[in-house]
Amino acid sequence: MLRRKFLWGGSEEKDKINWVAWDVVLGSKDKGGLGVGSLYSLNLSLLLKWLWRFKNEHNSIWRREVCGIHNGYRKPVIGLEKKTLPGVWFRIIKAIPELVDIGFELSSIFEIKVGSGENTLFWLDDWLGGGDRLMPGFLCSLIWIKKKTCFVADRMAPNKLLWDWKKFPRNPTEISELCLLSDLVKFTTVSEAEDKWRSKLSGDGVYYVHDLRRLIDDKVTIPTLNPTIWLLIIPLKINCFIWRACMDRIPSAVNLARRGINVGNTSCALCNLGTDEADHFLINCPSTATAMGWIFNWCGIPIQPFSSVSDFINFAANWGHCPKKRRIFIVICYGLLWCTWKARNDLVFNKVHISLLKMADSVVTMVFSFIAHRGNFGKINWANWLSCPFNIL
Ligand SMILES: [Zn+2]
């Protein structure tokens, strides 16, 4: 709630309408959000880091402390906690079923690399991979074995298995299960190294909180049509405006009327023909289309019809083959939409009519200042810029 108030409180609008669903805002930029990330995903990912550390920091004092309190040495991961002792460690382990509920099995996040086998439970840890533990998969083993909490090191020696039978397998079912089990484990060899839990989410096996956090956010947030293109060259308010305009979440007359605000006339102030909504006055309005034609002509790019703001931005994001030129073109498109919005607001609220020529001029000047001051293109020649924006390269 605090973060929500902070984000919307920074907006220029005083009406405090939450224009974009919070679950969209939280999503990654790839999914059309602002990459804010949910606290829910951060919390779960941080909790899991403790489990990863527990499994890798075998000799740390805190780990010994936890094991001492919860008798955790010979317990499977879920069960590491003593249920009569609620507290921090209890909460950490409870993160595991929560993750499973939203589709993240532990085996999809970690793999166990057996070294000496002294910290990996033979029957209860998923050390063979694939998400299955040997118990309870091998039902007969429940009858045979003396100790289900034995470690891999207790059962495996170089080139042979060390069984500790309660009852020696005799009938055909038990013997075939024993053969199958021997086949499964025969490629594993124990060594001097320590057992490790490696993250499957990173290239180096280290567990990073942001890896899991991003995956959880992708699951629990709402994706939109286009990825968010957030340009550092451009002021925050323009980035935010374009992001919202692509989703038709700006205070146009039609949108305000939809939210029960009496705005009187909902026709487009620029042409009086269409309606005052983003896709019209930013893209399809005859006045806007004329200014857009000039800007495209200046860029040397053939104009084409666009159905919506999102379609227009999508075109810019995929235009051409040169990344530098494309970046300049996207900034120009952002500038064009922003100046059109300003011109529309001047007309609606101040009754000031800005000519199309002046509006197009302001796009050229404004984008030049962005590129010159924040674009990392070196010194830019104004005359070159005026002839064609890509001549500055
Ligand atoms: Zn219009």
TrEMBL record:
Q: What is the protein's name according to its record? A: Reverse transcriptase zinc-binding domain-containing protein
Q: Which InterPro entries match?
A: RVT-Znf (IPR026960)
Q: Which residues form the Reverse transcriptase zinc-binding domain?
A: 226-288
Species source reads Centaurea solstitialis (yellow star-thistle)
Domain of life of the source? Eukaryota
A Pfam short name: zf-RVT
